[in-house]
Structure formats: structure tokens, C-alpha cells
Amino acid sequence: MIQKILCIFLCITTYTLWSKPLSIVATTGMIGDAVKNITQTKAHVTTLMGPGVDPHLYKATQKDLRKITQADLVFYNGLYLEGKMAEIFKKIQKIRPIYPVSDALSTKLLLHDPEFHNNLDPHIWFDIQLWISVVQYINQVISQKDPSNKVFYQKNTEDYVKKLAKLHQYIQEQVQKIPQQQRILITAHDAFSYFGRAYGMEVKGLQGISTLAEFGLRDITNLVNFIVEKKIKAIFLETATPEKPMQAVLEGCVKKGHALKIGGALYADAMGEEGTSAGTYIGMLKKNVSTIVQSLQ
User: Fold this and answer.
1) What is the value of pTM for the model shown?
2) DSSP secondary structure string, 163-219?
3) What is the pLDDT, as a whole number, of residue 207?
4) Is the pLDDT of residue 211 over 60?
């Protein structure tokens, strides 16, 4: 009888250990959303940077450090998107598996900073075809960590990739509604170059690829002159950056007699609030595209 009870106890304990959901930490909402689509009920996913948070400026808290050091897996964007956390990742990777999702991509596919050519543009999620490769890479890492659920993860990944492929086609169709000469996207910082390359739009940002980049009166003046020359109808704010610099651009154009408007606020480095239309990666991109097309067509 005692042996039977011990056997039952061991079986229950073993099952509990093996069936316990993975603990996964993601830095950005876009990465966290990909992980959730892949793992669904098989993992507890924590996203460090919520809506309206600028990853370029983000500093990890003590609470974040505990989450990272206790997680089974940690995913971050890489390419210095989370620049202020680089040293932390370097130290923690000695004791915890930490993966930059940008490792999924060949450097031949990446864009360079126009001002500092040795720097690579980290905003890879704005090219859906690149992001599909990232999603597949995340699936591979998770499946290696939890091989017992590999088939489950693979099926979820395939389903999600199909949705992303449809989204890619949808965006291509929507951008075509904008007259060719008006396919110029002006934003607060240079976060949309991958989007521009993928969907045929010229992109200009007041700041460089990082919101840490400095800008001055000359940058504002040059952008104003460009907008007036190209007769651009609208410029865009970003949800995670201050409005004041772009308001200065707007005022500069008005002083030159050019009728310019703020087309709305785009989601650049962070998604929207959970439960809203922009609270998922797919919803965020659809919201951005709707805002851009309505303002420029």
C-alpha cells in the first residue's frame, strides 16, 4: 500500500513538473505578442515594456531584473533597441538563456543608420516578411526548451504566420490607395524605414533611428523645407515620443504658407493598450496603416 501511494505521489509530482508552463520574458510588446501566439496556454509571458514606453530610453528596474533572472527564457530585440539594457543582458546571459530575436535575420537584410553606417536599424517588426522569420526563430528556441510541446508550438506558429502573410498583402493593397507622389511618411524619429522599404514609401524622421539622437533647429528647418517642396499633406506623431518637436515642424510649414496637418499618432516602438485594437502586433499595424492612408490619400 505504501509503495502504491509513493508511486502515485511520484507520478503526480513528475507530471506537475513537466506540465508547468514556461516562464518567458519579452522586452517589447511586439515580441511578447509573438511569444503569446506561439505558446498560448503553455507559457506565462511577461512583457517588460508596456504601451507608450520608449525602448531606446528604458532602464530596467529591480523588479525587471528579478523577472529576467527567474525566467526560463528571455527574448529581446537586439540591434541596440534596448540600448540602456545592453550591459544587463551581457551579464545575465551567463546564467540565463537570453536571445536577441534579430539573430533570426541575416545582416544583408538589415538597414543601416544613414548617419552612422556601422549602426543597424533595430525596427525590424515593420517589415512583416522579416518579422515572420523572427516568429519562426522564436518558435525554434521555445521548442528546443520544451520539446514535449513542439508539435503544439509548430501548429500555432504556422497559423500565426498565415495571418501575418495576409496582413502583409493587406498593407500592400492599402498603400496603393495613396497617390504615388504622396507616399512620403514623415514621423518623429526614423522608425519606419523597414516599413517604407517593404511597402514602397519614402520615409523621413526628425530624429535618427534612436530617440536618443539629438536634433536642432537646422534639422527642423530642413524638414520643413522638404515638406513644403514636396507639398506633403500630413505628418505624424508617435505614441511614445513627445509631440512638441513635430508641432514645431507644423508651425514652420504654416509660416511658409503651406497647409499641413497632423495626420495622427502612429505606434512606433510600442503597441497600444491591451484589449484595444492596437494592443496586438496585427492590430497595431492595421491601425497605423489606416491612419497613414486616411491622411495621405
Assistant:
1) 0.90
2) HHHHHHHHHHHHHTTS-GGG-EEEEEES--HHHHHHHT-EEEEEE-SSTTS---HHH
3) 86
4) yes
